[in-house]
Amino acid sequence: MADTTDTSSVTADRPDSPIQTTGTDHITIWGSNETDTIAFYRDLLGMPLVLKQPNLDDPSQTHLFFDTGDGRILTVFVGDRQSTQQPQRGGVGAVHHLCFSVAPSDFEDVIAALEADGRGYNVFDRGVFFSLYTQDNNGLIIELSTDKYDIPSDRRGEVLAKAQELRVADDADYAKDKHLAAALEALDLDAHAYDLPEATSGVGSINWDSRWDNHL
User: Fold this and answer.
1) Mind listing the domains of the chain with CATH numbers?
2) Which strand ranges, in their side-by-side order, compose the sheet holding 73-78?
């Protein structure tokens, strides 16, 4: 039985729980049609289409499998449906957004590609990472994030947990860049900062039901 004495504790240590996940295998979303879905996820975001077959629960639909870049898969159920830019409905159990990572050196090229594709976007400094928000062909919020420092992937959770500890000690509302930098120093990680564009913090300033600020 998992220890539930402190349900809100934040740590990179594995919990003493009856099940231990080993990672994210795939996420599946509802899509509109094959053409528009492939145009966004493969042709714009660069995710290879690695498998295509009938939806095994509903053969009238097609099941598309995209490699998000590290072998973790995004799958989409598509059929003969129109794409829409209407915002997704929120609510308990609903998906708020999907986030995919991009290389820091590619961040400005990502912005240029979205502009060339006529897509709106917002860019924010989120304190412990840097993010761009746009929409897919069905109005689902897509976040493209990048690390602000070259943090080793196997130490990322440890760094974030330490930043959380420092944030609490600082009585700050959220983990900021200074907490992240201090966490790296405390953990003796020699990580350099990436050269990223200036951006606002975006704290409490996003209206997800409005159009994106940056657009053609």
Assistant:
1) 26-83 (3.10.180.10), 97-148 (3.10.180.10), 153-186 (no CATH)
2) 26-30, 73-78, 58-67, 49-55
